[in-house]
Amino acid sequence: ISKGDFLVNEGLIGEEQLVGALCLQHSLSRVRLNCDEIPVRVRRSIPLREANTWRIVPFRIGEGVLHIAGAAVPNDEMMKELRRFTRQEIRFYLISAREYEELQFEVRNF
Question: Which of 2, 15, 18, 55 would disulfide-bridge 71, Cβ 3.0–4.6 Å?
């Protein structure tokens, strides 16, 4: 469990505060997603197994950029793995763990 998750679990900070702090610390943007607005072809741009492993959601493709939201700050291993599936630039955004789980539920029941 990460320090941030510990703080959230103990009720010392809220999930939004954690995501906001991580965005500031790692120079990432925050995004809020609606499953209905994510085209199926975009969701499938990264294989489901890898998307589930890394807890990510590809949500937009445009101008040579694949926009991906994730519930954790990306690391070098993740980015190397994701680059195996696309030649496009990858732009990463943060979402909360709760939002990720809600999106997964909506996708499975879509």
Answer: 55
